[in-house]
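Researcher: Quick one. two chains, 988 residues in total.
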Amino acid sequence: MHTPHPRPLDLLARELAILDTTTSLLHWDAETGMPPRASAWRAEQTAYLASKSHHLLTRTEVDQWIREAMDECDPSDLHSLSNLRLWRRQHDQASKLPAEFVETWEKTTSLARDQWVAARASSSFSTFEPWLTKLISLARDKARYLCDGGATYDVWLDLHDPGVTCQDVRDCFGSLVPELRTLLSPAMATTRGPDLLSEKHPYPQESQVKLNRAVLDLIGFDWEEGALALSAHPFSTTLGPCDSRITTRYTEDSFLGSLYGTLHEGGHALYSQGLPKNLHADPVGQAVSYTLHESQSRLWENIVGRSQLFAPTLTSLIASHFPQLADLSPSDYWRACNKVEPSHIRTEADEVTYNLHIALRFEIEAALFDGTLEAAGIPTFWNELSEKFLGIRPPDDANGCLQDIHWSAGLFGYFPSYTLGNLASAQIYQAATAANPTLEPALADGNCLPLLRWLQDHIHSHASLYPPQELLLHTTGARLHSAPFLLYLKKKFL
Amino acid sequence: MHTPHPRPLDLLARELAILDTTTSLLHWDAETGMPPRASAWRAEQTAYLASKSHHLLTRTEVDQWIREAMDECDPSDLHSLSNLRLWRRQHDQASKLPAEFVETWEKTTSLARDQWVAARASSSFSTFEPWLTKLISLARDKARYLCDGGATYDVWLDLHDPGVTCQDVRDCFGSLVPELRTLLSPAMATTRGPDLLSEKHPYPQESQVKLNRAVLDLIGFDWEEGALALSAHPFSTTLGPCDSRITTRYTEDSFLGSLYGTLHEGGHALYSQGLPKNLHADPVGQAVSYTLHESQSRLWENIVGRSQLFAPTLTSLIASHFPQLADLSPSDYWRACNKVEPSHIRTEADEVTYNLHIALRFEIEAALFDGTLEAAGIPTFWNELSEKFLGIRPPDDANGCLQDIHWSAGLFGYFPSYTLGNLASAQIYQAATAANPTLEPALADGNCLPLLRWLQDHIHSHASLYPPQELLLHTTGARLHSAPFLLYLKKKFL
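Model:
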């Protein structure tokens, strides 16, 4: 018996995976280890690899290979069919983008990051504005290349969440925002109390690192195939089939930011670590959508990490790393880590106001893509929307429109995935605990592995076998809807 | 006026530089941040990029481009002539290697690293032996492809130090080894004394990191274009025109290993940081040889870092990081950091015995390439040579033939560069201080910058404009010889 020759699409998949994971390493290193003046050359490197990748994916033979594979495919082989459907999507999308555009896009987003970091540090929107103008212009170009005459914002949403449109998101916020605004006051009352954690600072960074590592152990993060590092803006990334890494950031006056950042990014990493390794280079082996990715991160960060059920475990772990908190009770800790209150920074927002932060960003992006807003108008519009949704105005742009890394990295249309991910997380958790009544007792004992196993079996291991809405339907019996999330918040805060 | 089109060799240089610096990042990350199970995929990545690089460099057009550029070159343009001479060397060497060999070589050396780490940790030569056999076989193949019928070890020496032959190294050790053996006893007597540093351990890693950063500041390391990290085996690497990084390792019972590791690798980084940035992608813009590279690292590590002149500055810096050493005198510190005594680990050896460690490795490599030694025979031969040169036998292979990373990384013929670099460092320092009598008074004041400036002007900035022996002749008025090094040791220890 001899091994058959790998088919051309399999060879291409391997080559693209090598280029893409190498690009991911270039980005990871830029955030975690690269010295400041290295960024110009780094932009050359990422642009070069992106061009190579684009060139490989758009060769005319690829179209032919997909057709041939389709013709040869057994119609009952769902796996191969899904894989070819995704190849088709990838090839067709890439083919609509000119090579020069791909290089310019990659170089600009790579260089813009430094500009954003500097602008945020000095809260100087005006220094970032020309870069943002350029990024928005390129993002509109990209959407125009891809849109086939449809709405350009829809293209960006679809890139992260296949099938989701601007109208879907508008409808979602249309019902969600009033409910959240109604919930706000009672939830603030429920979680009001003395600030027990701030009183006891400082929390040395070294101890926070140890705590975060212990929490990652607890949720089942695999250190043989992952790492935790420090960066200015927390993120997670996949550098290969056995290499899922996350970052967090530290301030010594509170450990909550680094801890919940770790749980959030750790949730992303658990999804990556649960993807089928034998398919890691295939389109069908990738995470299915950003909504589903965020559902995993928000589930571990909030539904588990901020639950009453898990509070005793977390409180005793925290006390073992910070002796000054030896007397902290689980209920006091629960209140401290759930404090509901309008605030400026999205990543540190509570579960009620978080989605209002996203609603604000959605309005801005929608306006950018329907052409009614330009970069120069963002700060004013941001502050008005902050007043409208959260009832507060940022003291400066560092706490307002400069706070997020996304636009500088070319991530437009990403923010809605956070809210859709929140909805999905509640829907999935409801389904999981209904299907398996032992999950919550295990969590109460500090044992996260049964829940992780369930998520692996019902979400992670399927990768992109089904379209995202279909996967959710399979897993939870319903398409994405907001009822489970609102029920969850009401049970929690009322 | 318009910019002329870049010539094909310039475009190729840029492309190769992108691929090579990206490969360097893949290696850097493998040593500093990669989780354990990621190594198999990492080997795929490095093999892929090496293949691409080899493919680009060996295309038949390249030969034609070099010829055309030679024809067009102004005979008085030394810079372009040198660049084309080096292009010719690179292209011809690469063209002699089959593509499959390049991929196998890259994959094997990438995977062998893990095997070496594990074997050293358990001091188990037998688990590494099959890998070493494979590596030696590939190294012999590589040399046979490149040698044009000459001696295979000469090829490996020439790869690191253009022009150096096995006979050159044999002649060098022939005179050096007896001199060093004669020096050993008196130097041991000079540096004998109570072990003042060990008595005062532990030295917390965090403080060692701060000390190392302060020492790098002192010697002029540019943090805007460099970084310091932790790895199992210290090394330095260049990831781009503005990105020179180094690693060190820590044990809390002594800070000397991490400090002198940092000075050594820092010396390499100063050379890289001093290369002309506008030529970073050109063959003529690279470091000229490993001997010259090691001359820079050994100069900062030993001639400066272990000098009486610099001891007051270093002692007070050390005391400011380790309060338990507040009473340490510069002369006591000088004795502690210069203690001469045969020992097992090369990287921690004193200046007299260090070159005996290299003589041992040279004998082994020479025997491997003349075919009189195979992997299985290395431990016995190593231990015999250790007895012969150093008068001691390693207690196990971890302290013997498994101690160095080099062979597992495919670095054969590298070790002699350390000794040749030691000779060059003394010769260069002698020339520098003779030419500029203010350098040593500045060093005595803790000011390293005049010396660094001299090295930048006379070594670093020339990159590969001249062949290495010629550069040394220009800079010091003599070809490489051992008299300045022996004079230096005798003045220091007698």
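Chain A touches chain B at residues 14-15, 18, 21-22, 25-26, 28-29, 32-38, 40-42, 44-45, 48-49, 206, 223-227, 229, 239-243, 245 (CB under 8 Å).
Researcher: Thanks, that's what I needed.
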